[in-house]
Amino acid sequence: MRSIWILLFSCLTLPILTACVASQPRNIADVCAIFEDRRGWYRAAKRSEQRWGVPISVNMAFIYQESSFRARAKPERSRILWILPGPRPSSAYGYAQALDSTWEDYLRASGNRGASRSNFNDAVDFVAWYNALSNSISGIGASDARNLYYAYHEGNGGYQRQTYRDKRWLIEAADRVQSNSSRFDRQLSRCRADLDKNWFQRLIS
């Protein structure tokens, strides 16, 4: 109980321009454990699924791949002379590793102008929005995590030109996304009914 009050106090006393960012979930390989620990995340993921028509399991597999559910994840810096930190390879940031330009597109298209890449609710909605865009532009099935990930990484123009075909590391990453999406889907099938219960239903069950 004391730790909860300490966390709350630290959030309230941060500088005005700094948000209190959620820590990484303890068991990121089990989507049921994640949502049991973060009920608000489940509600956000469910809203995004309903809004954009892309399954929760797919969107969560993307975030798992991109940031391992770390709110302020960034690409590693390059190294100058193997020692000095150099520039980062891109502007990717947050749970979804969204680029500055793509994030701006999302803000305009979604109407969610106050969204933050370090906020899980906004990040999962971004991923679902982009995957719905790939479904519309490239005709990729909403549950086809592998090909959706190619489009997510290469852009839909790159996906249609099949620029991923010569990138072995990207093919392997997309395979992992597909595998994790399937695993998350199986996990959700056993816990979603409970996650959908309100506090009173959980109390009496």
What can you see in these coordinates?
The chain has helices at residues 2-12, 31-37, 39-52, 56-67, 100-110, 120-138, 145-161, 168-195, 199-204; strands at residues 79-80, 84-85. It has 205 residues and is an all-alpha fold. The protein has a domain at 28-69 and 120-197. It has a two-stranded antiparallel sheet. α4 (56-67) crosses α6. The longest helix has 28 residues, at 168-195. The radius of gyration is 18 Å and the shape is globular. The two termini are 25 Å apart. 30% of the residues are buried.
Write down the overall geometry: globular
List the secondary-structure elements in sequence, H or E: HHHHEEHHHHH
The unreliable regions are 1-19
Largest sheet: 2 strands, antiparallel
Please report which band the strand proportion falls in: under 5%, 5-15%, 15-25%, 25-35%, 35-45% or over 45%.
under 5%
- Helical content class: 55-70%
The average pLDDT value, as a whole number, equals: 87
Quick description:
Helix content is 61%, strand content 2%.
Give the key terms:
205 residues; mainly alpha; 2% strand
SSE topology sketch:
Elements: H1 2-12, H2 31-37, H3 39-52, H4 56-67, E1 79-80, E2 84-85, H5 100-110, H6 120-138, H7 145-161, H8 168-195, H9 199-204
Antiparallel strand pairs: 1-2
Helix pairs in contact: 2-3, 2-8, 3-6, 4-6, 4-8, 6-7, 7-8
